[in-house]
Amino acid sequence: MNRRNFLKVAGVTASVVAVSPVAFKQSVEAQPKKKTFEEALKEVTGGKPVKESSKVKLIAPAIAENGAVVPVKISVDHPMEPDNYVKGIHIFAKENADPRTISVYLTPANGEAFFSTRIRLAKTMNVVAVAELSDGTFLKAEKPVKVTIGGCG
Amino acid sequence: MLKKITVFLFLMTFGISSAKAEIRWLYDLDMALYKAQKQNKLILIYIYSPHCGYCKKMDRTTFKDREIQEIIKKYFIPVKVDKDSPQGEMIKAEYGYLGTPTFHFLESNGRKIKSIFGAWEKKDFLMILKYFAKGYYKKMNMTEYFMNEN
Questions:
Q1: Do A148 and B119 touch (CB under 8 A)?
Q2: Does residue B46 lie within any of the structural domains?
Q3: How many domains does chain B have?
Q4: Quick check: B121 contacting A, CB < 8 Å?
Q5: Any chain A CB within 8 A of the CB of B23?
Q6: In angstroms, rounded to a whole number, what is the distance separating the alpha carbons of residues B150 and B131?
Q7: Which pLDDT does position B149 carry in this prediction?
Q8: Of the candidates B54, B57, B124, which has its C-beta nearest A63's C-beta?
Q9: Is the pLDDT of residue A84 over 70?
Q10: Is the residue at B15 inside a domain?
Q11: Would you call A151 and B53 a contact, using CB atoms and an 8 Å cutoff?
Q12: 3-class SS of residue B103
Protein backbone atom coordinates (compact mmCIF):
# COMPACT_ATOMS: atom_id res chain seq x y z
CA MET A 1 0.00 0.00 0.00
CA ASN A 2 1.48 3.34 -1.00
CA ARG A 3 1.09 6.50 1.02
CA ARG A 4 -1.78 7.83 -1.13
CA ASN A 5 -3.89 4.67 -0.69
CA PHE A 6 -3.09 4.52 3.00
CA LEU A 7 -4.32 8.08 3.47
CA LYS A 8 -7.55 7.29 1.50
CA VAL A 9 -8.33 4.23 3.61
CA ALA A 10 -7.47 6.03 6.85
CA GLY A 11 -9.63 9.00 5.90
CA VAL A 12 -12.67 6.88 5.03
CA THR A 13 -12.29 4.81 8.20
CA ALA A 14 -11.99 7.92 10.35
CA SER A 15 -15.16 9.40 8.74
CA VAL A 16 -17.17 6.23 9.35
CA VAL A 17 -16.05 6.04 12.97
CA ALA A 18 -16.80 9.72 13.51
CA VAL A 19 -20.19 9.76 11.80
CA SER A 20 -21.68 6.41 12.78
CA PRO A 21 -22.42 7.14 16.49
CA VAL A 22 -24.21 10.33 15.44
CA ALA A 23 -26.13 8.60 12.65
CA PHE A 24 -27.03 5.75 14.96
CA LYS A 25 -28.26 8.12 17.66
CA GLN A 26 -30.29 10.09 15.10
CA SER A 27 -31.88 6.95 13.65
CA VAL A 28 -32.89 5.79 17.13
CA GLU A 29 -34.26 9.22 18.01
CA ALA A 30 -36.14 9.41 14.70
CA GLN A 31 -38.30 6.41 15.64
CA PRO A 32 -41.70 7.44 16.96
CA LYS A 33 -42.17 7.00 20.67
CA LYS A 34 -44.67 4.33 21.56
CA LYS A 35 -47.68 5.81 23.32
CA THR A 36 -49.92 4.01 25.73
CA PHE A 37 -53.67 4.06 25.23
CA GLU A 38 -54.04 6.17 28.38
CA GLU A 39 -51.61 8.79 27.03
CA ALA A 40 -53.39 8.91 23.68
CA LEU A 41 -56.79 9.17 25.35
CA LYS A 42 -55.58 12.01 27.55
CA GLU A 43 -54.59 13.98 24.41
CA VAL A 44 -58.26 13.97 23.46
CA THR A 45 -60.03 14.21 26.80
CA GLY A 46 -57.52 16.26 28.74
CA GLY A 47 -57.91 13.76 31.55
CA LYS A 48 -61.70 14.05 31.84
CA PRO A 49 -63.56 10.81 32.63
CA VAL A 50 -64.91 8.73 29.73
CA LYS A 51 -68.14 6.88 30.39
CA GLU A 52 -69.05 3.55 28.74
CA SER A 53 -72.32 4.10 26.89
CA SER A 54 -74.69 2.13 24.71
CA LYS A 55 -75.35 5.38 22.82
CA VAL A 56 -72.02 4.88 21.07
CA LYS A 57 -72.32 2.05 18.59
CA LEU A 58 -69.05 0.64 17.30
CA ILE A 59 -69.34 -1.93 14.55
CA ALA A 60 -66.14 -3.78 13.66
CA PRO A 61 -65.52 -7.36 12.56
CA ALA A 62 -64.98 -9.91 15.31
CA ILE A 63 -62.32 -11.36 13.01
CA ALA A 64 -60.56 -9.21 10.43
CA GLU A 65 -59.16 -11.19 7.53
CA ASN A 66 -56.63 -8.42 6.81
CA GLY A 67 -55.34 -6.36 9.74
CA ALA A 68 -54.14 -3.64 7.37
CA VAL A 69 -57.67 -2.62 6.38
CA VAL A 70 -60.16 -3.28 9.15
CA PRO A 71 -63.55 -1.67 8.48
CA VAL A 72 -65.15 0.19 11.40
CA LYS A 73 -68.46 2.04 11.60
CA ILE A 74 -69.32 4.39 14.44
CA SER A 75 -72.63 6.04 15.19
CA VAL A 76 -73.69 8.04 18.24
CA ASP A 77 -77.32 8.17 19.23
CA HIS A 78 -77.38 11.84 20.28
CA PRO A 79 -79.11 15.03 19.06
CA MET A 80 -77.27 17.24 16.58
CA GLU A 81 -78.74 20.60 17.66
CA PRO A 82 -76.82 23.90 17.79
CA ASP A 83 -76.33 23.81 21.57
CA ASN A 84 -76.27 20.05 22.07
CA TYR A 85 -74.39 17.91 19.59
CA VAL A 86 -71.60 15.43 19.06
CA LYS A 87 -68.49 17.50 18.57
CA GLY A 88 -66.11 14.71 17.64
CA ILE A 89 -65.61 11.00 17.23
CA HIS A 90 -62.20 9.52 18.03
CA ILE A 91 -61.01 6.00 17.25
CA PHE A 92 -58.26 4.29 19.21
CA ALA A 93 -56.51 1.01 18.44
CA LYS A 94 -55.28 0.19 21.92
CA GLU A 95 -52.11 -1.76 21.12
CA ASN A 96 -50.87 0.16 18.08
CA ALA A 97 -47.65 2.18 18.50
CA ASP A 98 -49.80 5.32 18.33
CA PRO A 99 -53.25 4.25 19.54
CA ARG A 100 -54.97 7.45 18.38
CA THR A 101 -56.03 6.36 14.93
CA ILE A 102 -58.43 9.03 13.73
CA SER A 103 -60.36 12.03 15.03
CA VAL A 104 -63.36 13.33 13.12
CA TYR A 105 -64.87 16.68 14.12
CA LEU A 106 -68.55 17.33 13.51
CA THR A 107 -70.98 20.24 13.60
CA PRO A 108 -74.80 20.28 13.92
CA ALA A 109 -74.83 20.70 10.13
CA ASN A 110 -73.73 17.07 9.85
CA GLY A 111 -77.23 16.09 10.98
CA GLU A 112 -76.10 12.69 12.22
CA ALA A 113 -73.09 11.55 14.23
CA PHE A 114 -71.90 8.73 12.00
CA PHE A 115 -68.84 7.80 10.02
CA SER A 116 -67.08 4.74 8.71
CA THR A 117 -63.49 4.12 7.76
CA ARG A 118 -60.81 1.47 7.62
CA ILE A 119 -58.05 1.26 10.20
CA ARG A 120 -54.83 -0.69 10.59
CA LEU A 121 -54.36 -3.10 13.49
CA ALA A 122 -50.86 -4.37 14.21
CA LYS A 123 -52.25 -7.41 16.04
CA THR A 124 -55.34 -8.66 17.86
CA MET A 125 -56.55 -5.86 20.14
CA ASN A 126 -59.47 -3.82 21.38
CA VAL A 127 -60.75 -0.89 19.33
CA VAL A 128 -62.27 2.03 21.25
CA ALA A 129 -64.64 4.68 19.88
CA VAL A 130 -64.89 7.86 21.95
CA ALA A 131 -67.64 10.42 21.34
CA GLU A 132 -66.91 13.99 22.42
CA LEU A 133 -70.10 15.91 23.22
CA SER A 134 -70.54 19.66 22.97
CA ASP A 135 -71.02 19.93 26.76
CA GLY A 136 -67.46 18.62 27.24
CA THR A 137 -68.35 15.10 28.31
CA PHE A 138 -67.08 11.91 26.72
CA LEU A 139 -68.76 8.58 25.97
CA LYS A 140 -67.15 5.40 24.67
CA ALA A 141 -67.67 1.90 23.27
CA GLU A 142 -65.07 -0.85 22.98
CA LYS A 143 -64.79 -4.00 20.87
CA PRO A 144 -62.14 -6.70 20.47
CA VAL A 145 -60.99 -7.37 16.91
CA LYS A 146 -58.93 -10.44 16.11
CA VAL A 147 -56.41 -10.63 13.32
CA THR A 148 -54.04 -13.37 12.19
CA ILE A 149 -51.29 -14.23 14.67
CA GLY A 150 -48.86 -13.99 11.76
CA GLY A 151 -47.48 -15.54 8.64
CA CYS A 152 -44.37 -15.71 6.48
CA GLY A 153 -43.82 -13.73 3.29
CA MET B 1 -54.49 -62.41 32.08
CA LEU B 2 -57.62 -60.29 32.68
CA LYS B 3 -55.38 -57.31 33.43
CA LYS B 4 -53.52 -57.80 30.13
CA ILE B 5 -56.79 -57.98 28.20
CA THR B 6 -58.05 -54.81 29.90
CA VAL B 7 -54.84 -52.96 29.05
CA PHE B 8 -55.02 -54.24 25.45
CA LEU B 9 -58.64 -53.11 25.09
CA PHE B 10 -57.80 -49.71 26.58
CA LEU B 11 -54.91 -49.21 24.18
CA MET B 12 -57.04 -50.33 21.22
CA THR B 13 -59.83 -47.92 22.15
CA PHE B 14 -57.43 -45.05 22.82
CA GLY B 15 -55.49 -45.75 19.63
CA ILE B 16 -58.62 -45.87 17.47
CA SER B 17 -60.08 -42.68 18.96
CA SER B 18 -56.77 -40.87 18.46
CA ALA B 19 -56.55 -42.00 14.85
CA LYS B 20 -60.13 -40.84 14.26
CA ALA B 21 -59.35 -37.37 15.56
CA GLU B 22 -56.35 -36.69 13.32
CA ILE B 23 -56.92 -34.64 10.19
CA ARG B 24 -56.42 -36.87 7.18
CA TRP B 25 -54.72 -34.48 4.82
CA LEU B 26 -54.64 -35.33 1.14
CA TYR B 27 -51.64 -34.24 -0.90
CA ASP B 28 -53.23 -34.33 -4.34
CA LEU B 29 -55.86 -31.85 -5.55
CA ASP B 30 -57.37 -34.15 -8.18
CA MET B 31 -58.07 -36.76 -5.53
CA ALA B 32 -59.56 -34.05 -3.30
CA LEU B 33 -61.84 -32.83 -6.09
CA TYR B 34 -62.99 -36.39 -6.77
CA LYS B 35 -63.74 -36.97 -3.08
CA ALA B 36 -65.36 -33.55 -2.60
CA GLN B 37 -67.79 -34.13 -5.46
CA LYS B 38 -68.57 -37.63 -4.28
CA GLN B 39 -69.15 -36.55 -0.66
CA ASN B 40 -70.53 -33.06 -1.48
CA LYS B 41 -67.99 -31.31 0.74
CA LEU B 42 -65.94 -28.16 0.47
CA ILE B 43 -62.19 -28.31 -0.10
CA LEU B 44 -59.74 -26.72 2.32
CA ILE B 45 -56.26 -26.26 0.86
CA TYR B 46 -53.46 -25.49 3.32
CA ILE B 47 -50.28 -24.19 1.66
CA TYR B 48 -47.41 -24.41 4.12
CA SER B 49 -43.65 -24.20 4.21
CA PRO B 50 -41.46 -26.46 6.36
CA HIS B 51 -39.49 -23.31 7.27
CA CYS B 52 -42.54 -21.31 8.38
CA GLY B 53 -42.80 -21.00 12.16
CA TYR B 54 -46.44 -19.92 12.00
CA CYS B 55 -47.32 -23.07 10.00
CA LYS B 56 -45.58 -25.18 12.63
CA LYS B 57 -47.52 -23.37 15.33
CA MET B 58 -50.82 -24.10 13.59
CA ASP B 59 -49.83 -27.75 13.16
CA ARG B 60 -48.93 -27.98 16.86
CA THR B 61 -51.98 -26.16 18.24
CA THR B 62 -54.95 -25.26 16.02
CA PHE B 63 -54.91 -28.45 13.94
CA LYS B 64 -54.52 -30.56 17.08
CA ASP B 65 -57.75 -29.21 18.52
CA ARG B 66 -60.58 -31.75 18.64
CA GLU B 67 -63.30 -29.30 17.56
CA ILE B 68 -61.24 -28.13 14.59
CA GLN B 69 -60.55 -31.73 13.60
CA GLU B 70 -64.22 -32.64 13.82
CA ILE B 71 -65.52 -29.72 11.75
CA ILE B 72 -62.87 -30.35 9.09
CA LYS B 73 -63.75 -34.02 8.98
CA LYS B 74 -67.47 -33.31 8.69
CA TYR B 75 -67.50 -30.49 6.13
CA PHE B 76 -64.18 -30.39 4.28
CA ILE B 77 -61.80 -32.45 2.19
CA PRO B 78 -58.46 -31.17 3.56
CA VAL B 79 -55.43 -30.82 1.28
CA LYS B 80 -51.98 -29.90 2.56
CA VAL B 81 -49.22 -28.91 0.15
CA ASP B 82 -45.67 -27.65 0.52
CA LYS B 83 -45.47 -24.32 -1.30
CA ASP B 84 -42.40 -25.47 -3.23
CA SER B 85 -43.69 -28.93 -4.24
CA PRO B 86 -45.04 -29.56 -7.77
CA GLN B 87 -48.59 -29.69 -6.31
CA GLY B 88 -47.91 -26.49 -4.42
CA GLU B 89 -46.66 -24.71 -7.54
CA MET B 90 -49.70 -25.90 -9.48
CA ILE B 91 -52.13 -24.76 -6.75
CA LYS B 92 -50.37 -21.40 -6.39
CA ALA B 93 -50.68 -20.83 -10.15
CA GLU B 94 -54.34 -21.87 -10.18
CA TYR B 95 -55.68 -20.30 -6.98
CA GLY B 96 -53.06 -17.76 -5.92
CA TYR B 97 -50.66 -17.43 -3.02
CA LEU B 98 -50.57 -14.95 -0.15
CA GLY B 99 -47.57 -16.29 1.84
CA THR B 100 -47.50 -19.12 4.34
CA PRO B 101 -49.83 -20.31 5.58
CA THR B 102 -52.36 -19.64 2.81
CA PHE B 103 -55.78 -21.27 3.05
CA HIS B 104 -57.92 -21.66 -0.05
CA PHE B 105 -61.56 -22.59 0.38
CA LEU B 106 -63.10 -24.23 -2.70
CA GLU B 107 -66.50 -25.56 -3.62
CA SER B 108 -66.68 -29.23 -4.56
CA ASN B 109 -66.42 -28.30 -8.28
CA GLY B 110 -63.10 -26.56 -7.68
CA ARG B 111 -64.43 -23.00 -7.81
CA LYS B 112 -62.55 -20.80 -5.35
CA ILE B 113 -64.68 -19.22 -2.64
CA LYS B 114 -61.97 -17.33 -0.80
CA SER B 115 -58.30 -17.28 0.20
CA ILE B 116 -57.15 -16.40 3.69
CA PHE B 117 -53.64 -15.59 4.85
CA GLY B 118 -51.93 -16.31 8.13
CA ALA B 119 -51.99 -18.52 11.18
CA TRP B 120 -55.00 -18.39 13.48
CA GLU B 121 -55.73 -19.32 17.07
CA LYS B 122 -58.02 -22.34 17.31
CA LYS B 123 -61.06 -20.34 18.47
CA ASP B 124 -60.72 -17.88 15.59
CA PHE B 125 -60.02 -20.54 12.97
CA LEU B 126 -63.09 -22.40 14.16
CA MET B 127 -65.21 -19.29 13.50
CA ILE B 128 -63.67 -18.99 10.03
CA LEU B 129 -64.36 -22.66 9.28
CA LYS B 130 -67.98 -22.27 10.43
CA TYR B 131 -68.48 -19.35 8.02
CA PHE B 132 -67.74 -21.72 5.14
CA ALA B 133 -69.13 -24.95 6.58
CA LYS B 134 -72.54 -23.48 7.41
CA GLY B 135 -72.84 -21.84 3.99
CA TYR B 136 -72.80 -18.22 5.19
CA TYR B 137 -70.37 -17.46 2.36
CA LYS B 138 -73.32 -17.82 -0.06
CA LYS B 139 -75.21 -14.98 1.64
CA MET B 140 -72.56 -12.40 2.54
CA ASN B 141 -68.86 -11.75 2.32
CA MET B 142 -66.63 -12.64 5.23
CA THR B 143 -66.19 -9.08 6.51
CA GLU B 144 -69.97 -8.51 6.56
CA TYR B 145 -70.42 -11.83 8.35
CA PHE B 146 -67.95 -10.95 11.07
CA MET B 147 -69.28 -7.39 11.32
CA ASN B 148 -72.62 -8.96 12.21
CA GLU B 149 -71.00 -11.17 14.84
CA ASN B 150 -71.17 -8.28 17.29
A1: yes
A2: yes
A3: 1
A4: yes
A5: no
A6: 15
A7: 67
A8: B124
A9: yes
A10: no
A11: no
A12: strand
Tell me the residue type at A146. Answer: K
| Domain range enclosing B118 | 23-148
Chains A & B: contacts with CB separation below 8 Å: 61
Q: By the 8 A CB rule, do A84 and A135 touch?
A: yes
Q: How far is Cα B146 from Cα B112, in angstroms, rounded to an integer?
A: 20
Which CATH number characterizes residue B134's domain?
3.40.30.10
pLDDT per residue as tens digits for the range B77-115: 999 999 999 999 999 999 999 999 999 999 999 999 999
Shortest alpha-carbon distance between residue A76 and chain B (Å): 17
Burial class (CB in 10 A: 0-12, 13-18, 19+), A146: buried
Note whether residue B3 is domain-resident. Answer: no
Is the per-residue pLDDT at A31 higher than 80? no
B contacts of A149 (beta carbons < 8 Å): 54, 57, 118-121
The interface predicted TM-score of the complex, written ipTM, equals 0.76
In a domain, B74, yes or no: yes
Smallest CA–CA separation between B82 and chain A, in Å?
Answer: 13
